């Protein structure tokens, strides 16, 4: 089981962050994400604060002083498809381990950004929320 990860920040809304967030290839923020390359697989460990039937991912990105939605690709939006070691639904108090893989588009500018990542249930209740810093870098290939 995952026992350590990077230090993330809580969201300002008071919803607790995951107990552990690990991003492949990143030991501290900002995490480098190569534009145009699938990578940045994130593993999150969090507790169900209430009974949950389904999980849905969403995020916002802030860069250069502008915050904008960063829609999750439809094939990645359903968090239940990315749960490890169990499956939806969950009962209050259950430990949830799920993953998300990010891939900045090739046209994405080379900037640093703050990602605010959200996990919702079927009633749009926020299950967990956290912020982490990324740096979009060019491919060296």
UniProtKB/TrEMBL annotation:
Record has Secreted as a keyword: yes
SUPFAM superfamilies the record matches: E set domains
Any single Gene Ontology cellular-component annotation: extracellular region
Keywords associated with the record: Secreted
Organism domain of life: Eukaryota
Main localization category: secreted
SMART domains: ML
Subcellular location: Secreted
Keyword Secreted found: yes
Gene3D superfamilies (UniProt xref): 2.60.40.770
Domain MD-2-related lipid-recognition: 8-134
Ranges in a coiled coil: none
UniProt xrefs under Pfam families: E1_DerP2_DerF2
Sequence similarity: Belongs to the NPC2 family.
Name of this chain's protein: MD-2-related lipid-recognition domain-containing protein
Species assigned in the record: Anopheles coluzzii
Organismal lineage: Eukaryota, Metazoa, Ecdysozoa, Arthropoda, Hexapoda
């Amino acid at each position: 089981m995952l026992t350590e990860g990077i230090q993330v920040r809580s969201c300002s809304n008071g919803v607790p962050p995951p107990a552990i967030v690990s991003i492949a290839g990143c030991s501290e923020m900002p995490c480098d994400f190569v534009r145009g390359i699938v990578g940045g697989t994130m593993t999150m460990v969090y507790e169900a604060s209430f009974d949950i039937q389904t999980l849905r991912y969403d995020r916002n990105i802030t860069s250069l002083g502008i915050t904008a939605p960063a829609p999750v690709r439809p094939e990645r939006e359903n968090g239940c498809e990315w749960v490890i070691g169990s499956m939806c639904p969950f009962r209050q108090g259950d430990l949830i381990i799920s993953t998300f893989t990010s891939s900045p588009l090739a046209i994405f500018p080379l900037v640093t950004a703050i990602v605010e990542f959200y996990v919702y249930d079927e009633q749009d209740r926020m299950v967990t929320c956290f912020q982490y810093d990324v740096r979009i870098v060019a491919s060296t290939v």
